[in-house]
Specification:
The structure holds two protein chains of two kinds. Chain A is mostly helical. Chain A has a single domain, classed as MetI-like (MetI-like fold). Chain A has helices spanning about 1-5, 10-35, 55-60, 60-95, 100-110, 115-125, 135-140, 155-180, 185-195, 200-210, 210-225, 230-235, 250-260, 260-290, and strands at about 40, 45-50. In chain A, helix 2 packs across helix 14 and helix 8 runs antiparallel to helix 11. The longest helix of chain A is centred in the N-terminal third of the chain and has 36 residues, at about 60-95. Chain A starts with a helix and ends with a helix. The mean pLDDT of chain A is about 90. By secondary structure, chain B is of the alpha/beta class. In chain B, strands 4, 5, 6, 7, 8 and 10 form a six-stranded mixed beta sheet that branches. Chain B has a four-stranded mixed beta sheet with strand order 2-1-3-9. Residues about 1-40 of chain B have low confidence and may be disordered. The chains are: A mainly alpha, B alpha/beta. Chains A and B meet through helix 2, strand 1, strand 2 and helix 13 of A and helix 1, helix 4, helix 5 and helix 17 of B.
């Protein structure tokens, strides 16, 4: 067997089919999209080479820049909250509930399997106003307040979106971080306890440093998924009110498919890809510096 | 130690160059689709397809049902010669789907299209991929079946006769006659009277207007009508032609009027989240006294299950005049439904027979079966026309001048912006001046 795997021809024969499929399905479309970002037009009208015009347009396009900030803001707030709450839940599973955490883990993870659009519609009905008012306004009314039309304001829509994202995804991060915490040897924790470490001190000085790699992965997962948020914000309020909660993905979709501007749509896609890259590298660099320190 | 092999570098460079070259070639080579024989559109020089395929929106089951009914009865011979086949798409995906089909030379014989696409300067118009129905139906001897008002509306909206008027809608204010009588009101003739009437209706316990704010356009239509009454029927063509700006005071006044109506509470609680069905229900159950909407609402009004206030209590009036304005109350906004274009390449003799049969029979069929008022002549007797439908028919026959609606001539991006930003306007997060300035900037950037 070693002879077979040591043979370069065999390796090539085994590698070429999956590599070819990968190149066809992943690399070619990405390069194709990259190429399109230097053109203007669509498949019907035809394409015209415009060089870097789409990039300069992006830099001066108010709607695009607004979408960029919405994307960054949403990603940062959602990442911090879902990783933090996920981590707190993971600590709860390991140190409080211990082996009895299975039910809670399942219950918190459950929203993850629901379709995002269904979750968005659910939250939309939670904050509804008027005849079929949702429970949130019922509670506000119960305490003497006036109904709030959350979907009519940027802050209200964004707050609902963050809570919705947190509700549906923190269970995933909790399970992910829980597996990381399980990898920490019991002996180390016991030794720390014998040395007098407990509570917050134990978490800060022992648990967090030892679970740093899985925390780092969670942050990168979370950033990459929230930077590409699309369906939940579209279903929640169509990127509104106005275009104030419209992320780059939604702007890209509308540009390419509703306005049939494929070239500019590809440019927006490229900006989004670069954004994901920058965020990921930033997290990596900051973590590697910490390790060197 | 990382030693870069010159051979490997050459291979990588070569691959990169090949990729860029092939991308450039593929991307740049996508010339506009071949002409659809625009010069010959109108003659039967197109080649008949194997089926009469009609692409419609999922959201419009009526058209599919009525075409099926025609295929089974009046257009049976045409259906046997060229069988009717339906294809569906989500209305929101229309532009994407039609662009893709057209670029693959796979457009069906009859298809839904985006408003901007079928205009002379739109993607399909430039590529000559839309049939001129006037020329085509004249040659087929069926043009007389299109009502002049409907063809005029289609020409106004699309700049050419490239859509069949499966609907012919007026827009105005539907009102609850019983609620008006209770509050001692007559039909308001001016906007000030409308405002005063709304206040009285609110005092009488009615929500003055039921408007589906979640869709945007039910609100912008009110603003647009104020502008048409204030500026005159050329209000939006002046914007398109650059003779006026949305930031001019008489246009900003329209946005101000809408904002004032919202702040007065005329649209009820949480109107920005209200869905169309809920707004219709609010009106037809007597909760709201008025609803600005099109005559497509007739199907709901004629449905006894939905209409709990009774057809005899439903009135229809035009948007009132604005004091000192150049527009008049007689100018009704009209539209002929979503664009339903035809592929000139497939406009052969059998397709011509189909379109002739539709033009001759659709008006009667749709009115009799679904109570739908179309832009086709009603050839033949229609029995048991509901009272409200007959009333609207009379109105249509009296009208001498129509206007478009606020967004009709805007490009796709500005159209979308007008609808989405209206929430910010009506909740006071955006001033009327800001709203119009943003829209004008979009018109200038994308027009």
């Amino acid at each position: 067997m070693n002879r077979v795997y040591g043979d370069r021809k065999t390796i090539l024969i085994l590698l070429i089919p999956p590599l070819a499929i990968y190149v066809l399905l992943k690399v070619v479309p990405v390069l194709w999209s990259l190429g399109l970002s230097f053109f203007q037009g669509n498949t019907l009208r035809g394409f015209e080479f415009v060089g870097f015009d789409n990039f300069t347009t992006f830099a001066t396009d108010g709607a695009a820049l607004q979408s960029l900030w919405v994307t960054i803001g949403f990603a940062l707030i959602a990442t911090v909250s879902q990783v933090t709450f996920g981590y707190l839940l993971a600590l709860l599973y390991v140190f409080v509930l211990r082996k009895g955490s299975a039910f809670v883990r399942t219950a918190v993870f459950f929203p993850m399997v629901l379709p995002t659009v269904a979750v968005a519609l659910l939250f939309r009905s939670f904050v509804a106003v008027g005849d079929n008012q949702g429970p949130v306004n019922d509670v506000i009314n119960f305490f003497g307040g006036s109904s709030v039309e959350f979907m009519a304001s940027t802050a209200g829509t964004m707050a609902t979106a963050i809570v919705m994202t947190l509700w549906s995804s923190m269970g995933f991060y909790a399970v992910l971080l829980y597996t990381g915490l399980l990898d920490i040897p019991d002996e180390i924790i016991e030794s720390a306890r014998l040395d007098g470490a407990g509570g917050l001190r134990l978490v800060r000085n022992i648990i967090v440093p030892l679970s740093a790699p899985i925390l780092l992965s969670s942050i990168i997962f979370s950033l990459n998924s929230t930077l590409k948020v699309f369906d939940s914000l579209l279903a929640l309020n169509g990127g509104g009110p106005g275009t104030s909660t419209s992320p780059l993905t939604l702007y890209m979709y509308r540009t390419a498919f509703e306005y049939a501007e494929y070239g500019y749509g590809s440019t927006i896609a490229l900006v989004l890809t670069l954004l994901c890259l920058v965020f990921t590298l930033t997290v990596f660099r900051s973590s590697s510096k910490r390790v060197e320190d | 130690m990382n030693i870069r092999s010159p051979r490997r570098s050459m291979i990588v460079t070569g691959l990169a160059l090949a990729s860029i070259a092939s991308l450039a070639a593929c991307a740049g080579g996508g010339a506009p689709a071949a002409s659809g024989g625009g010069e010959d559109a109108g003659s039967f020089s197109g080649t008949d397809p194997e089926t009469f395929t009609v692409l419609t929106a999922n959201e419009n089951p009526t058209l599919e049902a009525q075409l099926d009914a025609l295929a089974a009865d009046q257009c049976k011979a045409e259906n046997e010669a060229l069988p009717l086949v339906h294809e569906k798409t989500a209305q929101a995906d229309t532009v994407q789907k039609v662009t893709l089909l057209a670029s693959q030379d796979a457009l069906p014989a009859h298809f839904i299209a985006g408003t901007a696409m079928v205009r002379p300067d739109g993607d399909l118009g430039v590529a000559e991929l839309v049939l001129d129905y006037e020329e085509f139906l004249t040659e087929a001897g069926a043009w007389d079946n299109i009502l002049p008002a409907a063809s005029s509306t289609v020409n106004n909206v699309y700049g050419q006769m490239v859509s069949l008027p499966y609907q012919y809608n007026l827009e105005g204010i539907w009102y609850n006659k019983a609620a008006f009588a209770e509050a001692g009101l007559e039909e308001p003739q001016t906007f000030d009277e409308l405002t005063a009437a709304s206040e009285k209706l609110a005092a009488a316990g009615y929500q003055p207007f039921a408007q589906a704010g979640s869709q945007g356009w039910p609100l912008t239509r009110l603003m647009g009508m104020y502008i048409f009454r204030n500026v005159g029927p050329e209000a939006m063509t002046d914007i398109r032609d650059g003779n006026a700006k949305l930031t001019d005071p008489e246009y900003v006044a329209g946005a101000q009027a809408l904002q004032d109506m919202a702040e007065e509470g005329f649209f009820g609680d949480g109107f920005n989240s209200v869905e169309p069905d809920a707004a219709t229900a609010a009106f037809l159950t007597g909760k709201a006294a008025m609803k600005y909407d099109g005559t497509w609402l007739l199907s709901n009004i004629n449905d006894e299950e939905q209409n709990q206030i009774g057809a005899e209590n439903v009135g229809f009036m035009p948007f009132p005049a604005v004091d000192g304005g150049a527009g008049t109350i007689d100018q009704w906004p009209a539209n002929a439904g979503t664009a339903m274009a035809a592929n000139p390449k497939l406009a052969g003799p059998k397709v011509a027979d189909w379109f002739s049969c539709i033009a001759e029979n659709y008006g009667q069929q749709a009115l009799q079966d679904a109570g739908v008022l179309s832009g086709f002549k009603v050839n033949g007797e229609v029995t048991d026309v509901p009272e409200t439908t007959a009333f609207v028919q009379d109105k249509i026959s009296e009208i001498s001048e129509t206007v478009l609606w606020f967004e009709a001539l805007l490009d796709a991006k500005s159209n979308s912006l007008a609808s989405t930003n209206v929430t910010l306007l009506t909740t006071g997060q955006m001033t009327p001046e800001q709203y119009m300035a943003d829209l004008q900037a979009s018109v200038e950037a994308n027009g």
